Each structure stands twice: as C-alpha cells, then as structure tokens.
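Board notes (copied after class):
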Amino acid sequence: MTEQPADPFRSAFRGRFENMLRWEQLDALWTVLRNDAEDDWYIYAVGDAPPQQTASTTLLNNFLTEIDQLLRKEHDKDYCGVVFTDSMQAPRFVKIFDPNHLGVSCGFSDHPPLPGWILSKLPPVDLEAPISLPGNRRRWWRRLLGGD
C-alpha cells in the first residue's frame, strides 16, 4: 500500500491529543463545543463517507447529546477514556472511540483502531476504515441525521 500524501486532516488526526479520562472532563469538553457558536464542525462517522458540509448547531448539539448517552450506557465504567481532543480550551479535533470496538486503543500499536466518530473543524478525508459501521451503529447514525 502506498503512503497517502499528507493533508491537513490526516496531519491533525496524527497529532497530539488529550484523553478525557474522567466523565467530568468529557462534560467540560461538551460544554466548550456547545458554546462554540460557529457552524464549522464536521461530524464524521468513520466507515461512512466523509461529510461534505459542516453540521448545523442543532445537529451538533443533538449529536453531543446522543453520543454522550451512548458512551455512558455502553462504556459502563467509572471513567471515560474513550474521547480525545487536541485542546480542551480551543478544540479543533475530537476523536470518539466506539466502546464496543476499542481493540488496542491504549498504548502503542502499529495499527491502532480508528475512532468511531470524529468532530473536526477541518474537512475530513476517508480514513479507509477496515470495517464498515456495524448495522446498529449505521441505523443510529441514520436516525440521528434524520434519515430513518
């Protein structure tokens, strides 16, 4: 497989991230994102086609509410640890790992798992997920977008 040319999205994806280890940290991140009045966030479900348009504030808020519920229900731990951001104060990139498809998300791996969802201020590019979204996640995603 040939190495893909560097682009801003892939560079940001490979950048440095802070882990939202505690649920309180995740709450604080959601607050920062909700207070960002700009409609300039892309919501990318990895394994689906990357979005071509940014999400409306309403869609972003709905997504944050739904993903928070999903994470707390399906990652039934006293810690979060499945959400990472490039900056707590001024986030531009957020990786959200699917609690049911974590693989080896901690530590070092030559092939770390891809996040389930990405919030980005940069237009996403296809990360070529090795598997597509499972049926239940695809239905959840379509419902959230108002398709089903």
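Comment from the instructor: The mean pLDDT is 83. The CA atoms of residues 25 and 116 lie 19 Å apart.
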